[in-house]
Each structure stands twice: as C-alpha cells, then as structure tokens.
Amino acid sequence: MKIVIVGSAGRLGTMLMRxxxxxxxxxxFNRTExxxxxCDAIRKKLGAINFDVLINAAAFTNVDACETERDRAxxxxxxxxxxxxxxxxxxxxxxxxxxxDYVFDGDKHAPYTExxxxxxxxxxxxxxxxxxxxxxxxxxxxxxxRVSWVFGPDRPSFIDAMIxxxxxxxxxxxxxxxxxxPTYTYDVAAMLPQFFDRVAEGGILxxxxxxxxxxxEYAQWALDCCRDAGVPLKARTVGALKLSDMTxxxxxxxxxxxxxxxxxxxxxxxxxxxxxxxxxxxITRFYSKK
Length: 290
Hints:
CATH superfamily of the domain at 2-156 and 182-209 and 259-269: NAD(P)-binding Rossmann-like Domain
Number of strands: 12
Strand content: 15-25%
Helix content: 25-40%
Largest sheet: 6 strands, parallel
Distance between the termini: 35 Å
CATH class of the domain at 2-156 and 182-209 and 259-269: Alpha Beta
Radius of gyration: 19 Å
Number of helices: 10
CATH topology of the domain at 2-156 and 182-209 and 259-269: Rossmann fold
C-alpha cells in the first residue's frame, strides 16, 4: 500500500514510519515539511501525491498553550483534519486520524465508550473534538482513533521524564488523583494495519492498553520495571501530588479519562494487552540496554 504519514517525526509518527516502511511504500511529513496551520499548503503538497491511506498523527498537543493560542489550535486540530479528509475523498483513500481522551470532561468515573457524549473542558479538547467532527462529516468510512497517555521510544513522554528524574534525584512525585490508561506506540503500530482498507471499520474507535492507573501508579511501575531491569536509579518510590497542586497549569484536565476498548475487542477478537505488560516491554527493550 501507499501510505502518507503526517506528523512523521512525532512520538507516534516515528514508530509508524519505521514499522510500515518494512512492508509498504511510505511517505512522511514532519512539521517543517508540512505546516498544518496552512490549509493551502496542505492541499498543494498532498494534492500532488497518490496514496491509499493517510495517517494523521500530528496535532497541536501543548494543552496549556492551546488556551492562549486558540486560533492556532483550531487551525491544526480542527481545520486541517477536515482538509486531509477531503483530499482522501478525492483519491478514494482512507484517513486514519488520531484523537484524544481529552474530548471528555472526566465526570463519568467509568470507562468512556465511543457512544458517550464528548464534553471537552479545555481548548485542546474542544479543537480535537471539532477535528473529529470534520473528519467524520467528510466520510463515515474514515477512522477517528482516540488514544490516551501515549508513550514509546521515539520521543520522551511522561514516564521517560519520571525515569530521568529518578536517575538524578532522590525524591520524586506525581499526581495521584488523575486516572487514565497508557497507550504504547508499539501496540498502536501493530493493530492499525487491519483498518487500512477503505471498507474496514470507520467512525470513532478507542484504543489504549488495558486497565487504568494514576500518574503516580504509572511512574511507580516504571521505576519498579527499571529496578528489575538493572537500570540504576537514585529514587525508588514516587510520592503523591494532587491535581489541585498544579496551580501553574492554564488548562483544565479531565480527572478520569479511561477509554473503553470493548468495541475494538468486538471488532477484532483481540483485547489490548495490559498497560503494566506494555511498560515492562518498553523498559526491557529500550532501557535495559542502556
């Protein structure tokens, strides 16, 4: 297949580029090669390419910056996905667009399904929800894939920052009252090809590793895995912070944003592996060798 990946230098896009280049003809665009805030540039660059699948792994993801750069957030997270969907329609191609758990307000306190009403509480969440709507308005066979707490080897994420701190400091802490689920880029890359065909499932789909945790639990498990893998650390335990302690944050975050993967399991016959298992795999692959 001919695949275009937008956001090819990001945490998710880099993994997809590396994995899919082994089997497919892949063209990638990073943020300097394709400015998603410039819809005319998107049409010009992508309009000159023929492809079967377009994967949009790019977004304006700085949640706090979105609060003060609302116009830019909506250009990149809302308008651009709609343009990408139109370009895909012109080629009878499939768009796979990544979205976020931040489209929910966090008040449910039970795993969110694809049928639950979105109600974002930040500009980032608002812009991502509007982007979803633009994609699906262009065609119900396009796929909006919501993920949460994405981690992987290609760009540092939350647990990488926590491991780095634990290597440098004797005392570290993380928020204990915000709950969601990590999503491993390696597992996303493995599951996504079954949705490449235009006739494959479209609409909204949730994917994350199984289970749930707080940032404190997530970080503690990462440190435990490092200890078992022989990675030297100064800090061995992660103390607790509260969301209310984060007074420097401009944007509100959902307190609970666990994504239900029941629909994914029903469609594919396979359940995502547990987040703890995915973190073990990540630490073993990319930290025990350092």
